[in-house]
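Batch manifest line 316
LIGAND: 2-amino-3-ketobutyric acid
JOB: complex structure
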Amino acid sequence: MERILVIGSSGQIGSELVLELRKIYGNNNVFATDIKNPTDEIKHGGPFQILDVLDYQNLLHFLVRNKITQVYNLAAVLSGNAEKIPLQAWDINMKALMNTLMAARQSDAKKLFWPSSIAVFGPTTPRHNTPQLTVMEPNTVYGISKLAGERWGEYFFNRYGVDFRSVRYPGLISYKTEPGGGTTDYAVEIFYEAIKKGSYESFLSEDTALPMMFMDDAIKNTIKLMQTDADKLSIRSSYNMAGISFTPEELAAEIKKHIPEFTISYKPDFRQAIADSWPASIDDSVAKKDWGLETIYDIQKMTKVMLEETEKKLKA
Ligand code: AKB
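JOB STATUS: finished
ARTIFACT:
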């Protein structure tokens, strides 16, 4: 029987992942932890505890005491915020990962999911249809920490048998919990502003194409990767995961189909340079071949659901 720990259960990914995992593995077998309080649904639907992943002894005790077999470690400082506090962000991102790798080695929680990102690529990487294996010279704090993390994950797999699994997430779009401090966050903010104000000022320029994915697709594929037989996985650093690619202008045009009076303006800030260093689209054929990555949301379907659900949420 699997006993699962989700670290970062109050964040954008964690708050949806916990609910999906509880449906599959049973409420009492999925432990949610964070340094912040979660949604009521998570708090009352199964075990939740405040836990700081940076406290190694506590983490290890938690794993042993609760007989945890799998960990999803989602704790991270995202790209935009990391540029404001570079050394702190590096410390937090790396220590959170190293603690879970070490704890996995020292306990029965041998299966570990850790999210990487399209941020591992840099300005010298081929920008279109970026291959799984290619030049990687990230020039952001977040990207450097994600690339270093991938290397450590693979190292712990080869050296200590930790069953490390990872995907390079594109920008994730969801309506349940808002992201914070990322470069792709505009693609969520835009829906809130479209509904509240009928306009949005984008911090990325109109023609900045980035890979994105609707959260349902991201969660389903993350769990799918974790459920795949170990011998099918040829990549133990991190898998490219593509989804859909679009620019702020294309997303605004899609929103306009539902809200004709919607307007967008552009005022690029420091996040423009980050976005310019990332791929515009990604080749995820290796993930498709190894473990059957599949997505169902295109920009039309995603926009419709985002507008409907964000509106319901704002009204409530
Ligand atoms: C960010 O924008 O920092 C994240 C990411 C692409 O990893 N959403």
